[in-house]
Amino acid sequence: xxxxxxxxxxxxxxxxxxxxxxxxxxxxxxxxxxxxxxxxxxxxxxxxxxxxxxxxxxxxxxxxxxxxxxxxxxxxxxxxxxxxxxxxxxxxxxxxxxxxxxxxxxxxxxxxxxxxxxxxxxxxxxxxxxxxxxxxxxxxxxxxxxxxxxxxxxxxxxxxxxxxxxxxxxxxxxxxxxxxxxxxxxxxxxxxxxxxxxxxxxxxxxxxxxxxxxxxxxxxxxxxxxxxxxxxxxxxxxxxxxxxxxxxxxxxxxxxxxxxxxxxxxxxxxxxxxxxxx
Length: 278
Fold this sequence. Notes:
This protein is an alpha/beta fold. Helices cover 16% and strands 27% of the residues.
């Protein structure tokens, strides 16, 4: 007996298959309009990944049609103990804002990988990201020029917190890079970068003799930064950083100034000034 194929039924099955395939795809980041997208939100709208927020944010940053202005990592899908580089210099990551909105990019503390790396990318702003346990937190290299790093935290990374190599006219404001194994901030082969009001403390966790809070192998301008150890870097008008990691301003006039600063902060000196209260 010849079997009759119900083409209508088969067509319905194929339709169902493709619907299921689409609904199970790894699309995630979504547009909020005006060239702004959210990534890591677990939705299935445009592309990227519903389960891997790093891949999702990379896809959004690479989308010049829907996400030409700004990408926000909203943190619905966490980035924790991540294996590999999280944001790996998407091709279209130029002249955009990437705002982590205070959410964390956490690596697995194994191997040579990066929280965010820009390789030949310019005109971007990266802000409000907390980046930990990668090899390097933020890496700007190979003519990644005219970028802004604002209010990021790059702590507890295996090499440098922030690295700038062969890239110029970048500005770092309000960032923190503490407790990294080697340097908090490392700048090499790079001119006319500016660092202001950042904190680099308790770096060189590995205990080497060539690692510091700030290493500047070039001519970097900066002021109002906080650190304890520097190599070839000074804030404007002082030696090293304007503030020490203890929170006290660094004196600008040598040993006598240091002694005077200590004296001025002692209760005994205040007692001598105002006298014994009667």
